[in-house]
Task: structure prediction
Amino acid sequence: DQQVKQNSPSLSVQEGRISILNCDYTNSMFDYFLWYKKYPAEGPTFLISISSIKDKNEDGRFTVFLNKSAKHLSLHIVPSQPGDSAVYFCAASLRRQGAQKLVFGQGTRLTINP
Amino acid sequence: GAVVSQHPSWVICKSGTSVKIECRSLDFQATTMFWYRQFPKQSLMLMATSNEGSKATYEQGVEKDKFLINHASLTLSTLTVTSAHPEDSSFYICRAGGQATEAFFGQGTRLTVV
Result:
């Protein structure tokens, strides 16, 4: 049962344009949603998060939008830069026994073309 | 951000042997640590949650006798893959910190069983 889904395995965007990465979820009990950037053979690096009670959070070039009624969130990167090329994982957190368990999507490989 | 160190970065072992992977939080105390596994081009799958001084909680389908987790101190958790088989070959990643927005990941360990 894949509770967090990223339906696009890859995305290619021109440098300077906007990159939009999408994520869908099924569990309405998730309390936080997070985006991570990952390079091969490395651990994920935290990018930005959003509480389930918010609908938007912005940090520099990164903005995350949450649509609870659609159980959908998206990450916008603008302007896109070559260094943004990586695999992006959407994750959702669920509190269990005092800690927040993270459930990850399958990832989307973003390629920024010069 | 906080630093989580995972060791070794990669390891090759023979079938039937055991391999120990260490996860250390270098500049903070982590009551809770998590172990994930990632197969190529797939999501990070949570294997177990370890709490300092108590038994780990394993996810459904993860064999606790095969993947031994020890969290003996607030800065160290270990994952031992016992009697390793080629199908255990994967990328193993630890996470330190129980709060989703304060979760930090190690750099991962690439295990290859031959």
Q: What stands out?
A: The longest strand of chain B covers residues 44-51. Chain B has no helices and eleven strands.
